[in-house]
Design goal:
The chain is α+β, with helices and mostly antiparallel strands. About 50% of the residues lie in helices and about 25% in strands.
Length: about 725
Amino acid sequence: MDSNRFIPIEEQFKVMADTAPVLIWISGTDKLCYFFNQGWLGFTGRTMEQEYDNGWAEGVHPEDFDRCFEIYNSSFDARKPFRMEYRLKRYDGIYRWLLDNGVPRYAADGSFAGYIGSCIDIDELLTTQRVAEHYISAEALKKEKALNQELLRSNDQLSKAKKGLLDLNDQLELIVEKRTSELSQSESRFRYLIQGAPVAISTLKGRELVIESANELMLKVWGKSSDIIGKRLIDALPEIKDQPFPELLDRVYTSGEPFYGNEVLAQLEHEGTRKESYFNFIFKPLQNSSGQTDAIIVIATKVSEQIHARKKLESIGKRMYSMVMTAPIAMTVLRSHELYIEIVNQPMLHRWDKKNEQVTERPLLEVFPELMNTSYPALLQGVFDTGIPVKIAEVRSPHLHREEYIDFSYEPIHNSDGLVEAILVTVNDITEQVMNRKQLEISEQQAQAMNEELTAINEELNSSNDETMAAIENLKLMQVALEEKIELIEANEKQFRFILNAIPQQVWTASPDGALDYVNEVVCNDFGYSNQQIVGHGWKEFIHPDDLPGCLEKWTNSLQTASEYMVEFRLKFADGSYHWHLGRALPLTEANLPTLWLGTNTNIETQKKNEQQKDEFISIASHELKTPLTSIKAYTQLMARANRDPKLDDLLKKSSGQVANLNKLITELLDVTKINAGKMTYDMSTFDFGQMVEESVEGMQHISLSHELIIVDCQR
């Protein structure tokens, strides 16, 4: 079966087709029909599934079947329009004469796409015409026989016959007038349909393409008013002269074949400014009774926003792909909670010792089952659930048996709704740095041993000149070794700074006493200063004055205790605006003493705004809850004053007490200030447990009328 039959019909066309006052059908390139409008289905009383393929042919009159299919098949093979009359069974079982017009359809690329046809019920018109023809023929035959038999019939009888013909002519004129009125009404409905259609529609008359009609949406697309009705299209829209539309319209008019355009760029002038827009459109020829094209209907839908959005997403995706694939460090992108490997660059493939086709679009845990019982899957799922990035430094690699150390980070990638849709995994091999550091520690121990040895050598210099020269040579060798170590350390430092600049957060380091000595390029870009200027100024100049005292207090405490530093504060950017950040720093210690502080500042402006909205909601909820509660309390007091039944005194008293308790509970639970400050207090007091049980049972008894609640052994 032709695949074209499964292409969804555009919603705009379906609405127009279902409201059109004609029966419409569409077939694919396999000659089988796959769409019938509501007019057709209402006429036959059958479902779309019953009419599919050749199911509709079950309603064709047996005497018309062969002729109907011969015309359809021969026209279809020749790709030519056709017009034929046949009888089709109506929902009540009566066969009605239809006039069926079919034309070939073509896709935007010019390929044949099938046929579309429209049918009009002409049964009344044909019946009237045939009755008239039969009546006239019968009368003529009768008169001829009468003339042959009675040549001398009176002129009076001849006059009566003529009068009968005149009456018949009057009847035919009435029928024609009625049909003309019906056609006029049909045309009015069609114009109303065009004006109210949810898509831009216009009709162009003749080869000159005179604008015969245009609905409001089409005028809006063109940027024109209704004054252009009656003008040539090229005069109303001169800017399209050098665009392909005039040529396409002329081709449709000449060939009688429709043209379908998808996502076509058009440049139209709006208030003197030329703007670019994209459209899906149809140029469909309209034919007169002679089968000749005398007009073209234009149906257009603006799709600029969809195309721009798609291109923007494609651009973002390409930038992300390019960033990952060209990065000098190992990177991969994991999609969804199933951790599908979406993008992976060559450094990461080299680390994994895998080929791209072995890992792409496969779950991470399927490729590396050895990670199943480690903490890494939980860390990744945590990033998806919370949107908080994870960064871990200097850990053993889980993939290799040899000793290897890495720094890695899991950065969330959010979609347009703010939800985490993927994770950017960055892995940096720091094995060489760690090994160099360990080697440096060993070298320092060796240097210390050499120093001790040199001391011993100096003590023996006086005893042996040869031994002195040997010691000098040893010293030179030691100096060369130390210089090599220094160069290696400097290279490692350069690589380390490159990694820090590649991280999307603000990264900084400080000396053991807390003095700022380095910031990465993210800090420089945010603050609008160079590295040296920011280090010289320090953090105080960029922290919001209201947040500075708390930051200094926590920083001083961390310096004194060599403990983790964590604080939330607002930082002033280059444009003067403040943005909330989460600051965190850890000391690098040796012999339990800090030798370096490494810190990051993560932008949490979005989270802060969400918290503010939550606080506003709680405040509003507090007010809305207290308002009806106050009314209940007032009504309870009024009932207590107006009560004359002693039996209700106790119930009203208890009701008032419960309202007071609920009011106190709402006040305490919805105190936003206490919640945010973490100063919720609990008033501890003794109470009578037995009394609480009795009150609870009494309250339940009032709402449980079908059962009796009994308290057993409740001592007070």
